[in-house]
Write a structure and sequence with these properties.
Number of domains: 2
Shape: elongated
Largest sheet: 7 strands, antiparallel
Low-confidence stretches: 1-67
Number of strands: 7
Radius of gyration: 29 Å
Mean pLDDT: 82
Number of helices: 12
Strand content: 5-15%
Length: about 350
């Protein structure tokens, strides 16, 4: 689970330092709609007090900034420090690449997405701005063309800056990173104002590492809460379901129901089987279904979850059973990408054939 957040943050750092190499493609994936353009950009940009001058470093004296670093994820200012630092680094990367981005529309686009507001440009207008910027890079148009007011009432430079900010915030939230908007905007503003970041590389690493650890802990806590809730729901369901007529329970706790009984051979764990199946969750949604794909699936039985392995070994070929599988006999408290932790699985299974495997 921790790997997810480490990867997410690594992606964000790369994006901040690498700039807009993939932005044009990303812009085409974002659908935006129109809103009257009477939105004052200056209402979005938040004033940042100019930091006090930093005294020259004294070789043997204390370094004040070290005392303020977020050593632990529990630091109450960690989110603000991370957001400011990330915004500053990202904006600095844009400036180093000499992108023609203006800060006011950039922050307006970022803020618009963050607040879930209707964008002032639709997808066609934003895509057009990115296409015009590429045309500028290719020397097909001039800077004057790029900065001239177009039919939208804005310049392509304004639309490009707005769209870039919108996409930046989209990328952040897509990775599960919800910044402190005011601090993020302050970091961007200070970078554009050429106010240097007060942290060196080692200090930045400390901030980002602490933030990663904080996200990991929050993610693990969320998973634990989901796992606990799902386990309680599963056991409550099985207790009630097990008392119903026609439901049988094995020693392991697997519950099954015979829909129809075939008269063929019963498979063993060493066999490969051809089955149709459908997985259903307690809320009635479908997780996976060979019926939806239009053809049976073939599995080596030993490779499947314990509850399915046990259940299929109760079925003569030609049978149709329904399994009610406790999380401990399924994907347990870890779950997987498709199945949340401690999820009870309901399988409808038709066993069509024991497949004879030919040696290679």
């Amino acid at each position: 689970m921790k790997k997810f957040y480490l990867i997410a943050l690594s992606i964000l750092m790369i994006f901040a330092l690498a700039g807009c190499s993939s932005t044009e493609n990303e812009a085409q994936q974002i659908s935006v709609s129109e809103q009257p353009p009477e939105v004052a950009a200056e209402a979005v940009v938040q004033e940042v007090e100019e930091p006090a001058p930093v005294e020259p470093e004294v070789e043997d004296g204390p370094v004040v900034i070290d005392e303020q670093l977020p050593i632990a994820p529990s630091d109450p200012t960690l989110e603000q420090k991370f957001s400011y630092t990330y915004g500053h680094i990202l904006a600095q990367g844009l400036l180093e690449q000499e992108l023609l981005i203006d800060i006011d529309p950039f922050l307006l686009g970022s803020t618009t997405f963050f607040n879930g507001e209707e964008p002032i440009f639709d997808d066609e207008q934003i895509n057009a701005a990115f296409e015009e910027y590429q045309a500028l890079l290719d020397e097909v148009i001039t800077v004057e063309d790029f900065e001239a007011v177009n039919d939208s009432g804005y310049s392509f430079r304004y639309q490009f800056s707005y769209g870039y900010g919108y996409i930046i915030q989209f990328n952040l939230q897509s990775q599960g990173i919800i910044v402190s908007l005011s601090d993020f905007n302050s970091g961007v503003s200070d970078a554009f104002a050429e106010i240097p970041l007060q942290y060196d590389e080692q200090e930045i690493d400390e901030i980002f590492n602490a933030y990663v650890e904080k996200l990991n802990a929050e993610y693990e806590d969320a998973l634990s809460a989901i796992a606990e809730e799902n386990l309680a729901a599963a056991e409550s369901f099985l207790e009630e379901n097990g008392a119903k007529e026609g439901i049988m329970t094995t020693d392991s706790g697997l519950q099954y129901e015979v829909i129809s009984l075939g008269d063929g051979e019963i498979p063993t764990i060493e066999d490969t089987v051809k089955v149709d199946y459908q997985i259903t969750f307690l809320d009635g949604t479908t997780g996976d279904s060979s019926y939806a794909r239009g053809e049976p699936s073939v599995f080596p039985l030993a490779n499947l979850i314990p509850g399915f392995i046990e259940g299929v070994q109760l079925m003569p070929v030609g049978s149709h059973f329904k399994f009610y599988i406790h999380p401990s006999l399924a994907y347990q408290e870890t779950g997987n990408e498709m199945i949340p932790p401690n999820t009870l699985l309901i399988f409808d299974v038709e066993l069509h054939e024991i497949v004879e495997m030919t040696a290679l």
